[in-house]
């Protein structure tokens, strides 16, 4: 879909493994950082398809906790990445609802939708 490539664009370097593919290659959460010229640190957490329950709900749950723990300074934005090559699916709708269930409706205030 382009989550890793989007993270690389934000960081300004190839920090995450990325390739053109309809299925994700990221299997676990990974944190990468960059420092801006003014000294501000930007942290980007690349995630697998967290709501792909074919991986098993226990594994998905552990990854969600791991991602949250990586964001020790707090979450300032949540980027939700969709491909323009495919229709918006029921799974993607369910993923958005799951984000709201996990984090509350305030998550929408921090959400940025990215189309790749």
From TrEMBL:
It comes from the Eukaryota. This is AIG1. InterPro entries: G_AIG1, GIMA/IAN/Toc, P-loop_NTPase. The keyword Nucleotide-binding applies. Belongs to the TRAFAC class TrmE-Era-EngA-EngB-Septin-like GTPase superfamily. AIG1/Toc34/Toc159-like paraseptin GTPase family. IAN subfamily. Keywords: GTP-binding, Nucleotide-binding. Residues 1-116 form the AIG1-type G domain. GO terms for molecular function: GTP binding.
């Amino acid at each position: 879909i382009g989550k890793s490539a989007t993270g690389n664009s934000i960081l300004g370097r190839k920090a995450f493994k990325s390739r053109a593919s309809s299925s994700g290659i990221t299997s676990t959460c990974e944190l990468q950082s960059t420092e801006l010229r003014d000294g501000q640190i930007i942290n980007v957490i690349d995630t697998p398809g967290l709501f792909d329950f074919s991986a098993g709900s226990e594994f998905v749950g552990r990854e969600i906790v791991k991602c949250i723990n990586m964001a020790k300074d707090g979450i300032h934005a949540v980027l939700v990445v969709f491909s323009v090559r495919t229709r918006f699916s029921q799974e993607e709708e369910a993923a958005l609802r799951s984000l709201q269930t996990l984090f509350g409706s305030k998550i929408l205030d921090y959400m940025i939708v990215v189309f790749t």
